[in-house]
Amino acid sequence: MSDGSGEPAGETPPEAGGGVRIVVEYCKPCGFESAYLELASAVKEEYPDVEIESRLGGTGAFEIEINGQLVFSKLENGGFPYEKDLIEAIRRASNGEPLEKITKSRPPCIIL
């Protein structure tokens, strides 16, 4: 059955990102809120329908879960994720593809 748009009724196109839920747990005293806001803005620009939520985490934390699965850990990788890698993970999640852990990271900024 169709709703007239050519798409089956009740289904959203995968590019919408609907049904994808992201939780970012970060250390606010560490100054990671700006990294979260930057990442959230990039995600919303690419996938406006994605649900993104922040939680305060422990010292040094910047952990990202997609649909309950940990896909990035600053505690493990020592840096922040590249936006393109997170966007790719969201694309995979919205298409129902298996998620892989993001292992590449950019180093945190160091003020001398």
TrEMBL record:
Pfam families per the UniProt record, alphabetical: Rdx
Spans through the membrane: none
Keyword Secreted carried by entry: no
UniProt superkingdom: Eukaryota
Topological relation to the membrane, as annotated: Lipid-anchor
Localization annotation: Cell membrane; Cytoplasm, Cytosol
Similarity remark: Belongs to the SelWTH family.
Name the record gives this protein: Migration and invasion enhancer 1
